[in-house]
Amino acid sequence: MMARAATILLSMCRALPGFAASYGRAFARNRGVVLAGVLAAFAVLLAPTHEAFAQAQTGLEQIIEPPQMGSAEPMLLQADEMIYENDNATIRAKGNVEIYYGNYTLLADSVVYNRNSNTLAAEGNVRMKDPDGAVITADQLTLTDDFRDGFVDALKLVTKDETRIVAQSASREAGNVTVFRKGWFTPCKLCEEDPTKPPTWRIRAGKITHKRDQATITYKDAAFDFFGVPVLWVPYFQTADPTVKRKSGFLMPSYSHSDELGSTVQVPYYFALSDHYDFTFAPMWTEKAGTLLLGDWRQRTASGGYRIEMAGVFDNPDDPLSPADQDFRGSIKTQGKFALDPYYSWGWDILAETDETFRRFYNLDSRLKTDRVSQVYLEGLHDRNYISTRFYNTQSLLFQDEDFSEATVYPIIDYDYIVGTPVIGGELSFNSNAMVFSSEDGTDSNRLIVEANWRRKLIDPIGQVFTPFGRLRGDVYGIDQPAELDLTGSDDIMSEDPEDGAIWRGNAVAGLDYRYPFITTTGSVTHTVEPIGQIIARPDTLGDQQDIPNEDALSLVFDDTLLFDIDKFSGYDRIETGTRANYGFGYTAQFASGAYLRAVAGQSYQIGGQNEFDTAFYQTSGLATDASDYVTGVYFQATRNISFSAQQRFDQDDLTVQRTDLGSWMRYGPLQARVNYADVPGNLPTAAPAGIVPEADSEEILAAGALAITEDWSLLANMRYDIQEDQTITDGLGLRYQDDCFMMDVTYQRSFIRDQDIEPDERFLVNFALKYLGAYTMSTSAFGGFGADGSDSND
After folding, report:
1. Alpha-carbon distance 669 to 279, whole Å?
2. Collapsing DSSP states into helix, strand and coil, what is residue 320?
3. Which of 350, 403, 418, 741 could, after both became Cys, cross-link 771 (CB 3.0–4.6 A)?
4. What does the pLDDT look like over 740-758, one tens digit per residue?
5. CA angle centred on 285, ends 745 and 770, rounded to 5°
């Protein structure tokens, strides 16, 4: 290998005339030996002496990091002139020196190897590029022959991600300590028009020490510059090496102020206990509400991971509206998920707290939260089988909620199976559901549901699409204390002392779905018009389903997305009966640019049998009469810049609007905006308890937008407004600066949410982040407390 490399080296050498003559015939006779010696010297210098660093490197480690290559890796050298100085025990390559070794490239005006000191010195316009793409520029680079120690004069380093390090000198000591003297660091890109212009921010220090074995970077006599102006000086500070994913130490502190909590200071400390588990302790001192202790444990295993978040405070609130009835308030929140095999997994998402406002009061959760849902689950999907087993517990956070909003499900099991081979030319599937349910209002119910579904799609020669389908279903319910039920949708169950026991219910469905799409093209637009008809026949149920507690079919929004569903109820506890026809049409316009327009309109009609929507609870659904309300939907997508959707329901008698939902998003030049609108009448008579169906009309608009003033500056705004009550719910204005390495938000926000001891809030927020150094947030609040990060968007 050495002889072969020497041959390559010899063929690349461009010696000037008279070079050999200046050293006589002895050199000419021995030039092969000399060149082999030069090659051997450089091979020794560039040979690896340490194991590869396990983590990705940054510019701080790329400066004098030994190349990680095999000893058999060939090295190529090219220079205008090579001189072997036997008296000085040096080998010198001069003029346009180029050294290629593996993925490393070294360029310099001259390179000298000193055999006495075992050092390699590159001088003049030194440039070295490593395998990661980082380019080091220096006046002089000196290394020992084992690459253990080295020295760089007038260093300039640019990494692949544009991070820059400039230092008067840099040296590597003891094999793992790199010291930069009179240098500065910045991850910001320099101005292309004026590279001498200071970057957005940088850190200047008299001495920067990087200890690889401790994974720390220490700055002494350091100053932070923003836009070339010094704003902060510190004699000493230390950060973790950016290449280390986790290291024990203090995290960025935070400060906030509010009427409820007063001034708050939070200083988290991170414990890197292992490469697969850690712990963060983040006490938060508050001026008015004690010291909140926060802990966050995270751990990963071979099959998954879990997390435990703990919070607690010893404080007795004076607010008479507070639900806290003891000195200690706290919560435990935990999540986990583990794989049993490639197809099945289990996990949990559980939250327990002493009272319903603790987490919102201390801003651990958003103040808009209205309930808590905890669950433990097992689920799997394999081939044509799906199974899900979930244990639920629900709790309301609102003061005015009834007992029925707090319940436990242990468990609810769903199993679905699709037969692999066609049955009568169609697809046969089976679905089953089992649930054990207990409510705080004293109602206990159990159920088992099994159903079989079949459908087949047929297309005739002229393009008509016929889809016959069928369903068989059988249910059995076990009910305890049904007299306590309020949400059955029927007055029958309200009779005195109804009997406990089992309720049987069965149903059979047969139907046909018909579609006939017509397609035509005008210019660059393809039009599709599709009339749709559907007939569904089924007898009345076997058994009185009005005696069954309605726990999962309370939410019903009749719109175009439900028009052609076989059963329009949202859950298992209610099923449609009788014969029903659904009819309408669909229209689609597909543009050559990729934009499209889609519209759907139609109506549902109860032809015969019992209309299960004709009960007091569902009178406002639009399906209570034989002829339902009309529903429409329009969806428009103009490439990536504009989207719009509109869903409406019209009264079947006078076409008055019963419900409207609008959504839009646009991006035009420097402007981005999103607007949502909802109009939901609620003044029709209903048997639902207060809070389930609103008694008054509800009309709201939600808007958010951003306007880019320049490449770096933007204006932000958001608003949620109750039109019916003429009341702002939330709004905010903001100013943002963001470039490649720095972000700052200045925001003013208001919230008018009120619940128990949660009061309306007004706050001013300043948030900024530095690339590689983390983020800091400061907020002030005139009303109500907010979290240390000044936000109200916690989950």
Report:
1. 45
2. coil
3. 741
4. 888 888 888 788 888 777 7
5. 30
Cis peptide before 411 (omega within 30 of 0): yes
pLDDT of residue 772: 72
Which residues are registered as beta bridge partners of 729?
none
Of 221, 240, 259, the residue that ends a domain is 240
> Is residue 321 one of the residues assigned to a domain?
no
Which of 205, 221, 240 corresponds to the end of one domain? 240
- 532 lies in a domain? yes
Say yes or no: 212 and 75 in one domain: yes
Q: Which amino acid is at 192?
A: E
Rounded Cα gap, residues 431 and 448, in angstroms? 11
712, with CB counted inside 10 A (0-12, 13-18, 19+), is: middle
| Whether residues 564 and 595 fall in one domain | yes
CA 55, 768, 794 angle in degrees (round to 5)? 85
The model's pLDDT over 201-258, given as tens digits with 9 standing for 90+, comes to 888 999 988 887 777 788 999 998 988 899 989 999 887 776 667 778 887 777 777 7
Spacing of C-alpha 417 from chain mean position: 32
**Beta-strand relationship, 501-515 and 465-480:** antiparallel
Beta carbons within 8 Å of 382's beta carbon, 6+ residues apart: 343, 344
Residue-wise over 524-554: b if at least 16 C-beta within 10 A, else e? eeeeeebebbbebbbeebebebbbbbbbbbb
Do 40 and 137 sit in the same domain of this protein?
Answer: yes
The tokens of 212 are what?
A: 């690889």
Residue 525 confidence (pLDDT):
94
CA distance 721 to 729: 5
- 8 Å CB contact between 548 and 505: yes
Do residues 401 and 510 share a domain? Answer: no
Based on C-alpha coordinates, what's the Rg of the chain? 37
* Segment among 114-128, 245-259, 375-389 with least mean pLDDT: 245-259
Percent of all residues in the chain with a pLDDT value above 90, rounded to a whole number: 38
Average pLDDT across the chain, whole number: 79
Query: Which CA distances in Å does 192 have to 136, 195, 198, 428, 738?
Result: 19, 6, 12, 65, 18
Q: How confident is the model at residue 644 (pLDDT cuts 50, 70, 90)?
A: very high
The structure's pTM equals 0.71
Give the total residue count for the chain: 795
**pLDDT beyond 90 at 418:** yes
292 within domain boundaries: no
| Residues 431 and 447 both lie in one domain | no
Q: Please state which of the ranges 76-90, 527-541, 682-696 shows the lowest mean pLDDT.
A: 682-696
Q: Report the DSSP pairing between strands 713-722 and 291-300.
A: unpaired
Which domain covers residue 153, as residue numbers? 2-240
Residues with Cβ < 8 Å from 490, sequence gap 6 or more?
A: 546, 547, 615, 616, 617
Q: Shortest CA distance to 59 belongs to which of 152, 157, 169?
A: 157
Count of structural domains within the chain: 3
Structure letter (DSSP) for residue 627: B
What is the phi-psi region of residue 304: left when phi exceeds 0, alpha when psi lies from -120 to 50, beta otherwise? Answer: left
Query: Looking at the structure, do residues 493 and 621 belong to the same domain, yes or no?
Result: yes
Are residues 73 and 169 located together in one domain of the fold?
Answer: yes
* CATH code of the domain containing 20: 2.60.450.10
Please report whether residue 648 resides in a domain: no
pLDDT at 401 over 70: no
- The predicted-structure confidence for 333-380, as pLDDT tens digits, reads as follows 999 999 999 999 999 999 999 888 888 888 888 777 778 899 999 999
Whether the CB-CB separation of 285 and 265 falls below 8 Å is answered with yes
Question: Coil, strand or helix: which one is 680?
Answer: strand
Claim to verify: residue 124 and residue 94 sit in the same structural domain = yes
Mean pLDDT of 681-706: 67
User: Pick the residue with more confidence: 28 or 388?
Assistant: 388
> Counting runs of H as helices and runs of E as strands, what totals does the chain give?
4, 44
Q: Name the pLDDT band for 774 (thresholds 50, 70, 90).
A: low
pLDDT more than 70, % of the chain: 78
